[in-house]
């Protein structure tokens, strides 16, 4: 059996009619529905106040705890700052003690070698150097020792006579011209006509004056390197000397001491002359320099010091290496603007090379 749409609509109206009737009746009657009070729980004003107080107490407790934590943290920070300051102070004291102790061995060494020289007659001290002059009184001669501590590369240099190869001047003249505080004669020389030339290999400001000449016979080169350390000995090639980076230096004969060991003195230099005014250049293990200048009446060999006696002085004074510079009438020692030694010529000799020292 088939059901038409019209029949289906009729069936829906019959089913919904009762409900529609009730809805229209309720709307016309304007009824309201009220729920009883028992449905909702009653909350008194006292209850509301007590809940707020509890929250306040809890907040107050949290704040008190935070305050206590802050106080504790502040105290901890204060202790840390105090500990840090104390540590810094302690480290500063340790650094001062360490600095003082680090220099102590050098002071002890300097005191020991100075004690061997005696009491300084004069001292010149500056940021560049410390130079001390001592008197030597031996059985057969008198002389002088000059100990120099170089503190700057500008404290020492070697100059040519009148700043030109072939020219000559006294060490006093060079000292005055350069406004130096001290001066010592340097290498040997060779005369040619009216010119006086430095002997063999000579270096000024890192440059060879007359080129390099290989060591021959008893000749040696002695000078200072770029680090202001004493260098010297026999050099058979320019590369050999260049490797030591010479800043300046001169040549003469013979080598007196190497590594604290006295060197054999050739027979010729033991008797020609036997005694004479001498100038010796040496060093200590801390790179201080020692110059010895002895007096003699002339170059005849009857007065002054022997080279063996100069070796004995070097050993007594604790030197490491020692080199015999030009002596006789060439020996010159200028200190604090005056001539200290007694030149055997009766006056200072004009020379082609000089070691100068500056305040």
From TrEMBL:
Where are its TM segments located?
12-33
A GO MF annotation of the entry reads: hydrolase activity, acting on glycosyl bonds
Coiled-coil boundaries: none
Give the record's keywords alphabetically. Glycosidase, Hydrolase, Membrane, Transmembrane, Transmembrane helix
Q: Which InterPro entries match?
A: NAGPA
**Residues in Phosphodiester glycosidase domain copies:** 178-358
- Pfam families referenced in this protein's UniProt entry, alphabetically: NAGPA
Name of the molecule in the record: Phosphodiester glycosidase family protein
State the organism of origin. Answer: Paenibacillus spongiae
